[in-house]
Amino acid sequence: MSLFIQHPISDARSEPVPERKPNSSQSRPPPPPTTSSTTASPAAAPYEYSPGCMSDGTMSANHWAVQLFVKRIGHAVEEAEAEHAAQPENAPWHVMTGHRVSWWRAEKAGILQAGDGWMACRTHVEHLLADLGPGEWSLDIVKAIFVLGALSALPFPGYAAFWAFWGMNSAVPTADLVNEVVTRPRQASADPTHRRAEPKPALITEPRNVSWIDKDYGMWAVRGYRDGWLPMVPHPNERRAKTQGADGDAGIMCGRTRAREPSGLLDAGAPFGNRQA
Question: In the chain, where are the structural domains located?
Fold first, then answer.
C-alpha cells in the first residue's frame, strides 16, 4: 500500500473560468446631486413694507400719491367734459348710448398729444398734486407716479381716468412713456468707471392685474379694453366755435406751475425720497 495519496491532477488552462459578478455597490450609478448643491436659493421677492413702498426701492400703485393723482385726473376729465357739454353747439360730442362713452371722452379727454414727453407729464403731475407742498419733484418721481397711474387705470374703461391716459388721442404717447419705464430694467447704461453695461434700476412694481410686455402687447390690451366702450352713434361734424376750447381740444390740459423749492414730498423713508433724475 502506497503511503502517498494521489489526487486527480487538473489542468487549469482547460477548465472554464467562472464569471465574476460585479459588486452591487460599485455597479450602481451615483445618486443625483441635490437641488441645494446645484442651485442657489432664489432671492426673496420684494414686499410692501408700507403702502406703495416696496422693499426693493420701487414704488407701487398703492402709493397715496399715485392714487390721488388718478382720482384727481378723473375728476378733471369729468369737469372739462361738463364744461364743454354746457355749450349747445357741442351737443353732438356728448351723445351717449348705454354704457358707451361720448365722442368727446373717446377723442378729447386724453392729457397727452402726439410728441408730448416727460415735461408734459411733469406739468400734469405737479399741477394736480400742487397742494401737497411746494417744490419741484425729481423726474424719477414724476415717471413713477404717471406710469403707475396709467397702468392702474388701464383695466377700468368705465372710469374717466382711463380716457385721460388711454383715449384715442392720448394712448400712443402714453404707451411710449409707459414702455420706457416698464422695460427700464432690461435696458443697459454704460458705467464710465468700469466701462461696462449695467442694467438700469427699476422705478416701479407693476400692478398685479396688468401685464405689460412691450408696446405692441400693451396697445393690443388698450384696444381690447377700449373697443367695447367706444361710441356707436355717428361721429359728429366738428364745428369750431369762436371761443377758445369750444371744440374740446382745450380739455384738461393743465397749466404750468411756477418753479418751487424742493418739499420732500416723498420723504427719505419712501422710495425716491432724495433721488434726483
Answer: 59-186+202-227
